[in-house]
Amino acid sequence: MVVGRRPGAYVCGIDAAMDVIGGKWKVLILWELSVRPCRFGELRRGLRGVTEKVLAAQLRELEADGIVHREAYDEVPPRVEYSLTPRGAALNEALAPLGAWGRENVLNGSPAAREVREDDHVPLISGAP
To answer: Is residue 120's pLDDT more than 90?
Structure first.
């Protein structure tokens, strides 16, 4: 189910897109899910610093916007997996140039950036290993 948060209030497409990806963790959730579907605990371990409450809330919002699919399996113990919908994959592709800009203009501007390759997992939280 797709939810319009502010129907009629968007000024432009970027405004609408930012409403969907706004929040500290949403873009990082999309990045993690672009590799493969993940369970909640896997996402939490991959996103160091996020709390369970915030991760659950951001996943619910992404699901409501049709970006993330939540699959609950009828098993014991219960298993839930999150994956990108086709709409979420398209959003990830749209964010790729923004990531390239960040690598070129932000990461390359720092001394540590010279030691980072494009495919390295770079912690975005100060002090994270």
So the answer is: no
